Amino acid sequence: MKLNIMREFVRLSATRNYSKTADELYIAQSALSRHMSALEDELNVKLIDRTRNSFELTPMGKIVLEDFKKILKNYEDLLDKIAKQTEIENGELHLGFLYYDMNYYVAKIRHIFHKKYPKIKLILHSYQPMQLEADLLEGKLDVALIYGMSGCCHRDIEYIPFLKIPYSLIYCNNHRFASRKDIRISDLDGERLLCPEAPFELNHVGDMLEKMFAEGGAHTFKKIQIHNYDEVPWLMKENDAIYISPMVNNQAYGSDTKYRFLLPELYHTDVSAVWLSKNTNAAIHLLCSAIKVCYP
């Protein structure tokens, strides 16, 4: 049983709302529902009373909730003990991330880091995607939070994935997809697609998209290059185009755009903490410890 499933169950029990819990944990509501059903199957016991209109735990669900809270607390205490073995009295850490994610997982990590390691100065830097990778590889950052690292074999970097997120289809409110109830990958065939102007060196999202299109039956695209990601809403409107990206912040491109998960919901990627192997800053390990508290 994974700790993240325990954390999902604990949070769901607190909010008593699937939609709110899914938003807080940055996962699809359907994924949360599947996780809870799988948890009940694994334990071979009913945890949630689904016969009522309101959310209620069964008597066994209440017992499991208390035990999960103890397990998660013990895990956090263990991480504290481990972190103290490498604790440093002072210092600083330069952390880079995508500019539109500041108020999402970045804020949570920042809060936990400051709480656990108040003597370490955490310096935040927000970026466009391409420049984030470039500055990390040039040694201007200690750690970067990067999407789509799975499968990366770059010999000079190390990384830990911590947050799994689905791909979103993004389009303007007046696009033909706005009136569709469901959108499948095969429906994208022939669409105008926004793409980065050059391949990423670390981010493997482009490779996953090619696999997604090939398996889903979408082959013909007119590609429109993105030079600056602030232009995405304008490029979509001017070209009647779509954009596909793993997104935590579904407000990144404003109120004139819509975000939808593609069906079937088979394709996900991760957000990872990434650093250069040669970087000896001990605070990197403290940051990883804080991330594991947020996303065990």
From TrEMBL:
Pfam families: HTH_1, LysR_substrate
Gene3D superfamilies cross-referenced by the UniProt entry: 3.40.190.290, Winged helix-like DNA-binding domain superfamily/Winged helix DNA-binding domain
CDD domains: PBP2_LTTR_substrate
Residues covered by the HTH lysR-type domain: 1-58
One term under GO cellular component: protein-DNA complex
Organism for this UniProt entry: Blautia liquoris
Family to which this protein belongs: Belongs to the LysR transcriptional regulatory family.
Single GO term (MF): DNA binding
Domain of life where this protein originates: Bacteria
PROSITE patterns listed in its UniProt record: HTH_LYSR (PS50931)
UniProt-recorded name of the protein: LysR family transcriptional regulator
Keywords from the named record: DNA-binding, Transcription, Transcription regulation
InterPro entries cross-referenced by the UniProt entry: LysR_HTH_N, LysR_subst-bd, WH-like_DNA-bd_sf, WH_DNA-bd_sf
